[in-house]
Design a protein that fits this description.
Layout (H helix, E strand, L loop, with lengths): L2 E5 L3 H11 L6 E4 L7 H7 L11 E3 L8 H9 L4 E4 L7 H4 L6 E5 L6 E3 L2 H7 L7 E6 L9 E6 L8 H24 L13 E3 L6 H16 L7
Parallel strand pairs: 1-2, 1-4, 2-3, 4-5, 6-9
Antiparallel strand pairs: 5-7, 7-8
């Protein structure tokens, strides 16, 4: 059984690779570097960044991801499955390479939130119960492929917007670990969601949105809301 992974070099994405490595030897890892690694994220995940120096790691830019060289390199793996987290939007010529398709971790519940910053938008909407993660197959649209698993996070009174996002990442890792054997054996019971969540992009995140989400989080803490969840 062979596979490749496409992700970035942020600590949460390296932790994703660590999760995969507990289950399988990854034939090829494609890293699309991002700016803005922060100490809080590394402290939370305690990621083994040395993974990025392994011989099976290929670094490329967002533009190079669909280049002939990268496509040919991915094709030579003859992958059964591709695993994706934190990668740019993949073109069909990439996600259609593996025999059984590509599986993605989305840090939100796709029936409510698609795209980026799902935990932020859930808190902005006053719906902390909708903070979670989805494991799904990639298709031509954004976060609309068949769902493998979906689960909300457990929230505590100590959480911040950052830790709520990190918890959604961890739920995604757990879903991947739990469903891994079925994925690689192509025995997943795929489900089609009856509704699609609203799509958010980076441009939608503003200072006012973050401020209002933080205000809601403080209000819930003051009301001891999370103790009753």
């Amino acid at each position: 059984m062979s596979c490749f992974a496409i992700t970035s070099d942020h600590p949460r994405h390296v932790k994703f690779l660590e999760t995969l490595c507990e289950k399988i030897d990854i034939d090829l890892v494609v890293i699309v570097p991002k700016q803005g690694n922060n100490a809080l994220e590394q402290e939370y995940f305690n990621s083994d960044m040395s993974i990025l120096k392994r011989k099976n790691v290929l670094m490329c830019t967002r533009e190079q991801l669909s280049s002939r060289f990268v496509l040919q390199t991915l094709s030579r793996v003859k992958a059964d499955v591709g695993f994706v987290f934190g990668a740019p939007l993949l073109k069909e010529e990439v996600f259609s390479i593996p025999k059984y398709g590509c599986v993605n971790i989305h840090t939100g519940l796709v029936t409510h939130y698609r795209g980026v910053d799902s935990a932020l938008w859930a808190m902005y909407d006053g719906r902390p119960d909708l903070i979670g993660a989805t494991l799904h197959y990639i298709d031509k649209s954004i976060d609309t492929g068949s769902v493998i698993g979906m689960r909300a996070v457990d929230i505590s009174g100590d959480d911040t917007l950052d830790t709520l996002f990190y918890k959604s990442c961890q739920v995604g890792f757990d879903l991947l670990f739990q469903n891994f054997d079925d994925i690689v054996q192509n025995k997943v019971k795929k489900s089609i969601t009856g509704s699609r969540g609203k799509l958010y992009q980076n441009k939608d995140r503003t200072e006012n949105v973050v401020r209002d989400a933080e205000k809601n989080l403080r209000r819930y803490k003051n009301e001891n809301y999370f103790r009753s969840m």
